[in-house]
Amino acid sequence: MSTAKGNQSTRFGETVPGYFIPVLNEREIRAAAGILFFATFLSLMFIVFRENFVPIKYVITLFFTDFVIRVFVSPRYSPTLVIGRLIVSRQNPEYVGAAQKKVAWIIGVILSAIMFLLMVIMNTYSIITGIICLICLLFLFFESVFGICLGCIMYKWIYKDKAQYCPGEVCDIKAKQPIQKTSGIQLLMVLGFILLTVGLAFFFNGFFQIKPHDLWEMLNGAKP
């Protein structure tokens, strides 16, 4: 069994009794991913609706800086992880292996470095930056909402080794519990929901596009 060694302040991961490798708190990681997702998504809305690229340049610079600190200094000093820790400080920690998270965050460093070069330094935009933004949003969304680390999948491909202490114990092969199983009726409900969405788009799209009225003006206009 391997044990964590080195200076606790700069080691990648934390030493926790009962765990034989350095670990991180998945709850604060998900909180940090949610913060970055919200900031990135909001800045993209400025581009889509106002053609304003200023917010995304701030976000990319801070995103890149945060991930560089995580990988090359220590996750302990990552600003978004510290904020995430403060947000979820009243929740019990969920420990995950630090090794696979480091691989995922190295991917984050590479992607954000490319974005920083293209959009901040060179002041350009292209299909490349658009695709990278979507990839980052996808990674952050899956991490924050589902607790699924897409970047961690690379760990097994690179090291040919089984990751330890995965979120939700997905690394451990086990049978689904009854509450996790999906019935045919449940799948039909999902299909019905999809058909409802398509039906709304087909039959009510024109109605939904009508600009809303100010409620107070409508009420005042209705008065005798």
- The coarse silhouette is globular
Helical segment count: 9
SSE sequence, one letter per element = EHHHEHHHHHH
Largest sheet, described in full? Answer: 2 strands, antiparallel
Poorly predicted sequence stretches spanning 5 or more consecutive residues: 1-6
Structure, described:
The protein contains 9 helices and 2 strands, in the order βαααβαααααα. With 224 residues, the chain is mostly helical. Strands 1-2 form a two-stranded antiparallel sheet. Helix 2 (54-73) packs antiparallel against helix 4 (98-121) and helix 4 (98-121) runs antiparallel to helix 5. The longest helix has 25 residues, at 26-50.
Summarize this, please?
The chain is mostly helical. It is 61% helix and 3% strand. Helix 1 crosses helix 3.
